[in-house]
Amino acid sequence: MPQADSTQPQINRVRLLGAMGIGQILAWSSTYYLPAVLASPMSQATGWSITRVVMGLSLGLLVAGACSPKIGSMIDRHGGRSILAASSILMALGLALMGAAHHLAIYYLAWTIIGFAMAAGLYDAAFATLGRLLGATARSSISGLTLLGGFASTVGWPLLAYLEHELGWRGACFVLAGAHLLIGVPIYLSFVPRTRAAHTAATGNTEVNAESLQPSAYRQLFLLLALLLTLQSLVTSSVSVHLLDVLKLLGIATATALAIGMVIGPAQVVGRIAEFTWGQKLHPTWASRLGVLLCLAGIALLIPAQPWLAFVAIALYGAGNGILTITRGTLPLVLFGPAGYGARMGLLASPMLIAQAAGPIGAAMILDAFSAETLLTLLAGIAFVGLLSCWRLPSK
Which of 92, 97, 301, 331 could bond to 177 as cystine, CB 3.0-4.6 Å? Predict the structure, then answer.
């Protein structure tokens, strides 16, 4: 395991997290959250169906899943500074190409480029960068980064709507491309330190050195963790895309459904704040169990189709999802230690991103063929399997 170099200056964590937080808000706003605002204007202006437009994001997620393991290994070897900066350059290129696209093939090429950028610039790459820089002491910084990144939809959606209204969807893409070049690249190069040895400060008895595990035990533990994170990604991606449709199919009025959907964001922030404060004293396995349990309870409470209960359900679901956004980064760090953290995060990200791409498509097929109650029951079952797998992870 690499030893900390005492001749190197201490990292200013506040500046580092502030810079990376801005980078995450920009990255999520211009990739994952972009279709939510721009898909309809794109469809109306080009004649492409909404399905074809949204499939661009699915393509990007599949590309990101395919190259995430390689990105994680590169961060382990070279650090994340240049990779995060490169992600902003690739996002700028992809967004500029998207803004200029008049043919569907060019639009999908743009999302392919953005897919490479997402692998190199979203949470998994950012977590790996913090792990490489801070080693075993990175847990609180990962929590802080997700807390800042949680404002991506709060900032991104209104900004995208404003840009689309003033400049059209093509102009919005060009402005976002410029923002990556003028904001994203400079902040990564200015505030993320160059490659340095990671800290190895102990975290009590909560850390397991991956090198001390037998190959079979390591493989079983890793597969359990991958199963948990992949199943949760499948659930959350399906809910995030189809929640409003599900609520309407349950007989809840559109205005009420919109109000219920607005609860998710604040609930996620509350969950992240709770984990960032008192949750630091809790083993990430127990935090993950709590997060999955809250998500499971929230999904199950939607099935009765009672509006007042749906508000409670989404609050529970949002809080659980907020906690799990943090533990997807802290759990691998504490279970396996900082050595090889980047490569491990890349391997875990691959099936998660593929699940995020496939989940909404599968959920749409179930809604078309069956009912909202069937989809919710299936998602609750998937969350329950995730809870079982989480319960088998070590918690001390």
Answer: 92
